[in-house]
Amino acid sequence: MTVRTTPPTPADEQRHSLLEIDQYIERLFVPRDFVFLQALRDAAEAGLPKINVSPNEGKLLYLLARIAGARRVLEIGLLGGYSAMWLAQAIGSQGRLVTLDIDEKCIRVARKNLERAGLASRVEIRHGDAPVLLKRMVEAEEPPFDLVFIDADKPAYPVYLDYAVKLTHPGSLILADNVIRDGKVTVEAENDKRVLGIQEFNKKLAVHPKLETILVTVTRNGVDGLAIARVKD
Ligand code: DHB
Ligand code: MG
Questions:
Q1: Closest by Cα among 71, 36, 67, 70 to 54
Q2: What pLDDT, in 10s, does the model give residues 85-107?
Q3: Which of 6, 54, 145, 180 can bridge 225 by disulfide, Cβ–Cβ 3.0-4.6 Å?
Q4: Which DSSP letter does residue 230 get?
């Protein structure tokens, strides 16, 4: 326990919680949209874990895709389709979002959410084990993606990074969720497989000769992060 030796300063008393700050940003910049809210409600009702990106992070993904002018996007880890809705909205009616998931229930929920949002025609959901699907995509020499968003099982993040680099072009963005894990990534002696996967991923990103990268913190109740990497020219 920390023992306070000095009285709280006015700055201490004015410090607000991460959640309050996050909600402030959301109120101002993420208009409440029925189909997006309903997507989260349906995912929860179907029993999917509440590990979707937050509305603010969804808006961030949307903006990054818009700024990059992304038309072809690959998502690894669909869950209930909430981030897919943000990305599909960003790419426009001529865009294509390919999204991978191994869980049939996730795919059912996500397909319904994308249909209700009028976005299903620009989204191709592929069912299967992501490393297998990605290997096949490389072998088939699929046209490169302008943006890849990694948000799936954490131990496989380093593998997903290798495929993401193979499936992109100079100037593409590679984004990855959950790269801070409440600061657990800073602890060298971690033994949680998920944290270890992220630590290896972050180190790999940091020294990757083909990428220029930063991690930005993303807050909600705690602190997590989004990796933003650009494939060098
Ligand atoms: C977990 C996975 C996520 O993608 C996320 O955003 C939060 C938590 C998890 O597996 O615990
Ligand atoms: Mg995530």
A1: 36
A2: 999 999 999 999 999 999 999 99
A3: 180
A4: E
The two structure tokens encoding residue 138: 């490389």
Edge-to-edge strand list for the sheet holding 96-101: 123-127, 96-101, 72-76, 145-150, 168-177, 223-231, 211-219
Report pLDDT digits (tens) over 28-50.
999 999 999 999 999 999 999 99
Cβ of residue 19 lying under 6 Å from some atom of ligand 1: no
Instruction: Give 115 Cα–ligand 1 centroid separation in angstroms.
Output: 25
Q: How far apart are the C-alpha atoms of 218 and 18, rounded to whole Å?
A: 10
CA 216 to ligand 2 center in whole angstroms: 14
Answer whether 178 contacts ligand 1 (Cβ < 6 A).
Answer: yes
Residue 137 structure tokens: 């995509």
What are the two backbone dihedrals, phi and then psi, of residue 153, each rounded to the nearest 5 degrees?
-60, 130
Domain range 17-231, CATH architecture: 3-Layer(aba) Sandwich (3.40)
Residue 183 φ/ψ region, left for φ over 0, alpha for ψ in the -120 to 50 degree band, beta for the rest: left
Distance 151 CA to ligand 1 centre (A): 8
Residue carrying the six token digits 């799936």: 152
The protein residue whose alpha carbon is closest to atom 7 in ligand 1 is 51
Instruction: Give the predicted TM-score (pTM) of the model.
Output: 0.94
Closest by CA position to 100, among listed 40, 46, 160, 173: 160
The single-letter code of the amino acid at 55 is P
Residue found by looking up tokens 């993303």 in the block: 218
Ligand 1 closest atom vs CA 152: 4
Ligand 1 in reach of 101 Cβ (< 6 A): no
